[in-house]
Amino acid sequence: MTDMQGLWLGALLLVLLTLAVLLPSLLKETTPLEHSSEEALRGLYQEQMQELLREHRAGNLSEPDLAQAQEELQSRLLIELDHRVQPKAWGQRPWLPRASGLLLAVVIPVAALVLYVQAGDPQAAARLAQAQEVGHSAMEGQVEAMVDGLAQRLREQPDNVPGWVMLARSYETMGRFADAADAYQRAVDVAQAQGMDAQDQARLWADKADALASAQGGDLSGDVLLALENALQLYPQQHKALALSGSAALARGDLEKTKKYWQALLQLLEPGSDIALRIQDDLVRLEQLEPSK
Predict the structure, then answer these.
(1) Per the count of CB atoms within 10 A, which of 46, 106, 146, 245 is most buried?
(2) H or E stretch including 233?
(3) Distance between CA 170 and CA 207 in Å, rounded?
(4) 263: which residues sit within 8 A by CB, 6+ positions away?
């Protein structure tokens, strides 16, 4: 479907939607308004009047207060009765709603077409799509420029671990996983040189392993395994490293190690959380894969 066809189809759907909302209420059979409305109002007035008398007998209203309240109640009743609108003219002409509905069914499409011919632009949809493509390309260019600027600053100030992590995650967002892995390695090197906490270093190794696996199309062998081993040596409870190590073992067909890694991970997770439930399901499926003893 071309942009022009899509534009016309959208306009047609809007017109049909407008008619679908307006016509049913105009074409349906109308029933005359019953006189029970005034009777209900008078009944409510009587109930409120009786309530005032009960309050007076109970001693909650003095004689002057009762008289004033009754006068106000009567005034409200008269105002309500005066302002009640009876649609006599409409009710006496049952053909009028149908005629109005049929008129709208013709007028709305014709008016929409005339308005479009006078003020519309048949090429607007195509230009809008082109503008969106240009805007998207411009935004991508701006993002790449900012990421390149960050990389340049890090080459000038290489001891910035958070900066390398930010650069790595930016590369991951852009799909540049090999560059992300290199940035994580730079972060690891600086973290080791600065003697950062073992848990933080383990997280960086696990992030590098994840980026490498993405760069290798999901392959968890080679340098990915080395990065995971480094992570678990530094901090055996590193969540991502345990999860990826289990997946790597499963890919090798080592079900025992897979079970070991995932059970260790499950012990660290909050019971009942989404990820814990997924790990439990994976372990159940793993049991089904194990050969019967």
Answers:
(1) 245
(2) helix 223-234
(3) 13
(4) 283
CB-based contacts of 115-124 (< 8 A; 24+ apart in sequence): 116/11, 122/4, 122/7, 124/7
User: Tens digit of pLDDT for each residue in 210-231?
Assistant: 999 999 999 999 999 999 999 9
Enter the tokens of residue 74: 């009567």
What does the alpha-carbon distance between residue 221 and residue 212 come to, in Å, rounded to a whole number? 10
- Give the Cα separation of 194 and 51 in Å (integer): 84
Please indicate whether residue 245 or residue 46 has the higher confidence score (pLDDT).
Answer: 245
Predicted pLDDT of residue 64: 74
Residues 222 and 18: their CA atoms lie apart, in Å, by 62
For the stretch 179-196, pLDDT in tens is: 999 999 999 999 999 999
> pLDDT tens digits for 45-61?
677 777 777 776 777 76
Rounded Cα gap, residues 135 and 123, in angstroms: 18
Residue 272 φ/ψ, nearest 5 degrees: 85, -5
Residues 6+ apart with CB under 8 A from 114: none
Residue 13 burial class via C-beta count within 10 angstroms: exposed 0-12, middle 13-18, buried 19 and up: exposed
What is the sign, positive or negative, of the torsion defined by CA atoms of 262, 246, 209, 231? Answer: positive
Round to whole Å and give the CA distance between 236 and 244: 13
Q: What is the pLDDT of residue 176?
A: 92
- Distance, in Å, from the CA atom of 163 to the CA atom of 196, rounded to the nearest integer, reads 15
Q: Which residue has the tokens 């008398």?
A: 53
